[in-house]
Amino acid sequence: MGALLPRSRGSLEVGDREGALRHPERLPVSTSGPSPSFLSPSRPSFPSSSRPSSSPFSSLPRSVVVTRLRAAGCVFAEDEARLLVNAARTPGELAAMVRRRVAGLPLEHVLGWAEFHGLRIAVDPGVFVPRRRTEFLVDQAVERVAGRSRPVTVVDLCCGSGAMGVALVAALPGIEVHAADIEPAAVRCARRNLASAGGQVYDGDLYEPLPAVLRGHVDLLAANAPYVPTDAIELMPPEAREHEPRVALDGGADGLDVLRRVAAEAPRWLAPGGHLLVETGERQAASIVEASAQAGLIPTVASSADLNATVVIATRPAAAPVSAVGAAAGQLPPVG
Ligand SMILES: C[S@@+](CC[C@H](N)C(=O)[O-])C[C@H]1O[C@@H](n2cnc3c(N)ncnc32)[C@H](O)[C@@H]1O
């Protein structure tokens, strides 16, 4: 995985969709009751042991970095300071990184990487930061094909940095991976992350840029598409609202505009017995279950309380030809 950043330092929090853990005091919703997953924190993943800084200079002592980060509202100031000090190659670079972080840039954008599924994924400015909860979708996907002897074809739709595709390649060596996103910055970033795995990354709207040869042959169709309701975006902390593209967050009135389209067209692309896996909010899952069933798929819901994650898994019946599945959906023409 040559494009990945070296795994030599501690992990960092990439958990919640909106960085609420890093700035809980900015969280605009109550954390005492249930809240949609995109507005609620997930488990922090900082290592408990702290490696001594490898920084060759001390012009900006770590304690000063901690103080500045804490004053800016960074809850995990100690961990963040360690990561920044370790990442900076010069005093000037460290000062600039601290300034960017204090100004509100997501830590992962300052560092240039995020930890996801035990891997370091390059994340460019303007690209969605992969969240810890999405590791649950990856685990669910791996479970469904682990041990399979024939080659596995995977599509990471709405791929962002390509984190899910990279994690799936790492967990399932030898798979063929394709990814697509509508945002040019995400496509560039995913191409870098997936290059050494031979992953193909396409630029365009959902399935539109995928090669037709994949139709009916996809074993795993993984989609972490935007699912935040439009009205809820203003409730998100500035880290997400201001530094992640709107197209990565906004799922329309009920948050499900993109996911409904993903479900409706999935049967055309899935192999018999293939699985669509999409992340949703807990309260949105029933709507996607319904949309998947209408498309002729067999849906189930899996959730992780630990990661505050909900995934709808919709399987194309093994026996049904794609034309029959499309007919059951009442919206897909037979595919020739
Ligand atoms: C929530 S982010 C998830 C990114 C990545 N899957 C991850 O988990 O880190 C959603 C991504 O969907 C992309 N996207 C939104 N609408 C899209 C569309 N119509 N077609 C393709 N990609 C889209 C955004 O650009 C963004 O990168």
UniProtKB/TrEMBL annotation:
Recorded catalytic activity of this chain's protein: L-glutaminyl-[peptide chain release factor] + S-adenosyl-L-methionine = N(5)-methyl-L-glutaminyl-[peptide chain release factor] + S-adenosyl-L-homocysteine + H(+)
EC primary class: transferase
Pfam families, per database record: MTS (PF05175)
Single GO MF descriptor: peptide chain release factor N(5)-glutamine methyltransferase activity
Gene3D superfamilies membership: Vaccinia Virus protein VP39 (3.40.50.150)
Region (Disordered), start-end ranges: 1-59
Protein name: peptide chain release factor N(5)-glutamine methyltransferase
Origin species: Frankia casuarinae (strain DSM 45818 / CECT 9043 / HFP020203 / CcI3)
